[in-house]
Amino acid sequence: MTATVLCERITTEIAVVTLNRPDKLNALNAELLGELDATFATLSADANVSCVILTGAGEKAFAAGADIAAMSAMSTEQARAFSETGHRVCLRIERAPFPVIGAINGFALGGGCEIALACDFLYASDKAKLGQPEVNLGVMPGFGGTQRLARRVGIGRARELCYTADTVAADEALRIGLVNAVVPHADLMTKARETATKIASKGRLAVAQCKRVLYAGADVPLDVANALETQSFAMLFGTKDQAEGMKAFLEKRKAAFTGV
Ligand code: COA
């Protein structure tokens, strides 16, 4: 049987993870969510990984949502378990010790938008369309969309998108801060790879601590968040990368980071 998630290591430091049910616009069923969870668990345990790109197979979709066929007959209890699975996968992506760039190659709707929102930031093809259209189906976001969308684009826009089921095209997604850049469809992976390569050239532990504190600090009072930053900042001074990074600057050469 074909894997519903593909993982290609394009360099020692960079992996491309692809949602792979293109005939169903990469709709998220239990099998795909399980494979996505396992893929990110494996990558997270690999100290060589510095950046991951997450995208969708085919020309049309990143993921057009949770699998409606699979959800249609769910009981309340099954829906609870499905939602909990989705939350677990999104947290796995969000808490990975490396940045995850979402390369949004088409529709990112419902659960697809929620998986995208678990990425650190997004680049969109000019064909992309994003949104939370669940109320069209008599349900609501269940993989963290109400919360992460609000944190990304602000509460007012999140409310409007969730209540109306409106989808936004790439240029509007850029305007409201849902994606960081829009590029011609054919250039999407090149753009994502360029940024991943740039990130992978930096001190891996330093980038990981930036990510940790950006997330951990977002939901606590500023003084607590600042204390987290101080803790991580100080910790990095016990690493070889700090010694190398500063020595290289003073010696006017490029740093050779080793991630330790
Ligand atoms: N769940 C299950 N199957 C899905 C799906 C989903 N969320 N989204 C698309 N598919 C399937 C379609 O059923 C179709 O399968 P089939 O060929 O076996 O009939 C296939 O993917 C292609 O989709 P299709 O609807 O024919 O493509 P389109 O280009 O005409 O329309 C969309 C694209 C995205 C507008 C449309 O597929 C859609 O509205 N999908 C649902 C979006 C949604 O509500 N997501 C939130 C779910 S909570």
Q: What can you tell me about this protein's structure?
A:
With 260 residues, the chain is of the alpha/beta class. It has two domains: 5-200, 2-enoyl-CoA Hydratase, Chain A, domain 1 (Alpha-Beta Complex), CATH 3.90.226; 204-250, Lyase 2-enoyl-coa Hydratase, Chain  A, domain 2 (Orthogonal Bundle). The chain is built from eleven helices and ten strands. It has helices spanning 30-44, 68-71, 76-94, 111-117, 145-153, 155-164, 170-175, 188-200, 204-216, 222-236, 240-250, and strands spanning 5-9, 14-19, 51-56, 61-63, 100-104, 107-109, 121-125, 129-131, 167-169, 181-183. The strands form two sheets. It has a six-stranded mixed β-sheet with strand order 1-2-3-5-7-10, with helices on both faces. Strands 4-6-8-9 form a four-stranded mixed β-sheet. Helix 1 links the parallel strand 2 and strand 3 (51-56). Helix 1 (30-44) runs parallel beside helix 3, helix 3 packs parallel to helix 4 (111-117) and helix 5 packs across helix 6 (155-164). The longest helix is centred in the N-terminal third of the chain and has 19 residues, at 76-94. The protein is globular, with a radius of gyration of 19 Å. The protein starts with a strand and ends in a 10-residue tail after the last helix. The model has no long low-confidence stretch (mean pLDDT 98).
Task: For the structure shown, list the relevant keywords.
single chain; 260 residues; alpha/beta; 2-enoyl-CoA Hydratase, Chain A, domain 1; Lyase 2-enoyl-coa Hydratase, Chain  A, domain 2; 2 domains; four-stranded mixed β-sheet; 11 helices; 10 strands; globular; binds coenzyme A
